[in-house]
Design brief:
By secondary structure, the chain is α/β, with parallel strands linked by helices. The protein has 14 helices and 17 strands.
Length: 416
């Protein structure tokens, strides 16, 4: 089942340098993009193609697998392979052998991974969170393409986002706008539910319902600056003090787990977010999620840093604690600020204020991690807002809650 917007988009000619599908989350644009890209592979006589997302894991999950609707399932007898250029999907089509590489593109030096490659086309997944040098390098890699065509999808960025002026306005671009009404699987009941939620906040309504480019108002952690708070490595003079996990679990929402280190610098203690695991859908049982956390994420952190003191879990998520304990991980209830009162602030607002202070005073950092990236954190921190009364909205807050739990332990142990 496809909507008219999806049909028109999929069947459009490949006569522009760049096709952009921009609009609200859950509008059906990614599904249409995957089918359109698959169709392009049958048209182009080139052999090598690229799908680039914020991380390689995300490129595989969103486009290659696509919850059972990705290229791996659409293309006949497609299989995962590897060569000197990296992991790719290998498929034999009537017009020749095709290799569809998938890579991460959010890091500052991502473009190094495609230097020297010749590409027939590129799919930019969530192009607004990709590094601009990577984007521009992709366009250079297609100079000799048979049909020089690129595809990008994204949720509406801020009006002054550089991808608009440096990419969309520069290339020969066909722009297609999407809203929730363009997704044929959205029922009237679900749309009514979303409308009721989103209409309570003007920013979320305009961005996630109308699909407009708007500047966030009342962003909670507006003081976050990746240039100042991002680390490529831990400075040699920082002394490691403690390592621990924090988690916010959900059965129908995202599950987020962060691994943190407390370090002593010359004049203060700092908290570093070292690694992150998340699942942002509702198709995996909590037992399956916890198995992946216990067998993949936790062992990696332990091998890398050799110790941890605690595993703090959202006290409301009893199911997650029980499941993790079945895998031998002893957990503690996280400090969720439930009993905190400071002046006219109470509860969650106290925890937010403490984390804001740490960001402002240089006590909070993110360590670059290509294997377990801070992808969800980077998405949510620009979207986590307050309502018209100044209270935090219960949206875009899975990693934000987990980070707050971690920071509560840090701040109350080492700062206050």
């Amino acid at each position: 089942m496809t909507s008219n917007k999806q049909k028109d988009f999929i069947l459009a000619p490949y006569d522009q340098t760049l096709d952009v599908a921009e609009g609200t989350p859950r509008s059906g644009k990614t599904t249409a993009c995957i089918v359109r890209f698959a169709k392009f592979l049958f048209r182009s006589n080139d052999q090598n193609f690229l799908v680039v997302a914020s991380s390689q894991q995300q490129a595989f999950r969103l486009v290659m697998d696509g919850d059972g609707n990705g290229l791996l399932h659409l293309l006949p007898k497609a299989k995962i392979a590897h060569d000197d250029h990296g992991d790719h999907l290998l498929v034999k089509l009537p017009n020749g052998l095709k290799r569809i590489y998938y890579k991460g593109g959010a890091k500052a030096d991502s473009e190094k991974s495609i230097r020297g490659m010749s590409l027939g086309g590129v799919y930019f997944c969530e192009i607004d969170i990709l590094n601009l040098d990577m984007i521009q390098e992709c366009f250079r890699r297609t100079y000799a393409a048979d049909i020089r065509w690129h595809l990008a999808d994204l949720n509406p960025p801020a009006p002054n986002h550089p991808v608009i002026s440096q990419v969309f306005d520069v290339q020969k671009t066909r722009w297609t706008h999407w809203t929730i009404d363009d997704n044929p699987i959205m029922t009237d009941e679900r749309k009514a539910e979303l409308y009721e939620t989103l209409s309570k906040n003007e920013y979320l309504f305009r961005r996630d319902w109308l699909g407009e480019r708007v500047t966030p108002q009342g962003v909670i952690y507006s003081m976050f600056d990746l240039e100042k708070m991002g680390l490529y490595k831990i400075p040699e003079r920082w002394i490691p003090i403690e390592f621990f996990f924090a988690a916010d679990g959900g059965l129908t929402d995202a599950t987020a787990v962060g691994f943190y280190g407390v370090y002593k610098t010359q004049d203060k203690y700092v908290l570093v977010r070292l690694a992150s695991w998340f699942y942002d859908g509702a198709n995996k049982a909590m037992s399956v999620q916890c198995r992946e956390i216990a067998y993949d994420f936790v062992p990696w952190c332990r091998r890398k840093y050799n110790r941890e003191t605690s595993f703090f879990v959202d006290p409301a998520c009893k199911a997650m604690r029980k499941e993790l304990e079945l895998f031998g991980i002893v957990t503690e209830g996280a400090d969720n600020n439930g009993k905190d009162v400071r002046g006219n602030r109470k509860g969650i607002e106290v925890g937010i204020e403490m984390l804001q202070s740490s960001m402002t005073e240089g006590r909070f950092f993110l360590l670059d991690n290509p294997e377990w990236s801070h992808e969800l954190f980077m998405r949510e921190i620009g979207m986590y807002c307050v309502d018209s009364n100044g209270h935090p909205l219960d949206a875009y807050n899975h990693d934000m809650d987990e980070t707050r739990y971690a920071h509560n332990h840090f701040a109350k142990t080492y700062v206050y």
